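Thread: "does anyone have the structure for this chain?"

Original post by V.I.:
We have the sequence but no experimental structure in hand. Need at least a predicted one for the grant figures.
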Amino acid sequence: MNRTWLTIFIAVGMAATVGCSSKNYVRSQTTPLINKSNELDDLTAKNSRDIKDVDARAQSNAQTLQNKAAEIDQKAIAAGQQAGQAQTLASNAAQRVDLLSNRVANLDNYSPVTETSVKFGLNKDNLTKQAKEELDQLAAQVASTKGYVITVEGATDSTGSADYNYALSQRRANAVIQYLAAEKSIPAYKIYLIGLGKDKPAESNKTSDGRAKNRRVDVRLMTNSTDKTDSSANVKPPSSM
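Reply from O.Q.:
Generated one for you, tokens below.
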């Protein structure tokens, strides 16, 4: 009886030993595989993230390039429009020069009725009260003058560059033209702008008084009427004030 139990005990012990040995063996064989699988999973996940990052950067770069291309296109269109506008302005300027040349040539057929010379402050282009009064006196004779035109010639003293004085004399002449058109209802086509700049001084620019007299706009009311009356007798000499 004791021998039988001993045999059973030994058999059970051997089975337990064999089972533990089998589990240890299986564990020793599968653990590296599990670890490698986990490493592969981690690597796959990392590659997926990298691929997504690359895609995101590629899309961002593509959008940036698309925006830059659109910006370049817009600039090209704007440049083309500016070039077209510049060409239009140049053509209009050429037409105005031709028209002005024809008008100036036609002035040979006109004789003066009256004239005045309005003065401006140093580096100023606004009309003074006295300048407006003188223009009012000239405009008062328009209604009684047949076939009239008005010539406007801006001028400056010699102070400053030629380009600056040209622009300044133009602003002064424009101030006179705008006043005659807006306040005296004189049509723009009746007004001839015939000269600008500092090239025709009325007085010497060597003195302050002379320079003050050169800061002016000469305005003349002229007519092409065939009336035999000597219109030059009514001409008012330019003011020297």
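V.I.: this helps a lot. The domain at 110-234 is CATH 3.30.1330.60 (60s Ribosomal Protein L30; Chain: A;).
O.Q.: and The beta strands are 111-119, 148-154, 191-195, 216-223.
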